[in-house]
Amino acid sequence: MGDTTTRALRADAERSVRAILEAAEQVLAADPGASMEQIAAAAGVARTTIHRRFANRQALTDALASSAARQLAQAVDDGRPDTAPPLVAMHRITANVLQVKSAWAFALSLPAEPGSEAAELQQEVALRCIAVLRRAQEGKLIDEAADLDWVRRVYYALIGESLHGGADRDADPDTLAARIIDTLLHGAGPRP
Length: 192
Known about the structure:
The chain is mainly alpha-helical. It has 9 helices and no strands.
């Protein structure tokens, strides 16, 4: 096989895996007990294709969790956490994360196995979040005495509530991001 044929086969395999993972997210979000056959049907592939790519259901869910965690890490990177002004980075990252979390809610809710790629990526995202919050603290956007791990946990909770709570969950990610950052930085108290 020539390089062109090999690349075409590899690209086809990657598309197949992407279709399987996207279908798995949709099917398992609706029915966590769905079968591999149901996922194959939703992906438009043969059941044997799933079994050729993933040895078992656990391998599929591990791949799903890793894929979603990679997308989450990329969403953070796309917000330019190290170079954009802290407030801009926080807004961009939040809007990006809201989009990824809404598209991959099931996969991102899976508990990451210790030592797995997903667990390592989630830890990296948490460290990047602390770094952005530290930059915001240095820029006087966050009180100098604030516990940044607590602030990170509150930030995560605000994102979670935005995705799961009422009519707001369908709002524009930029609008939600602005509300989340405003609430994180200013709370619900009266404004001067």
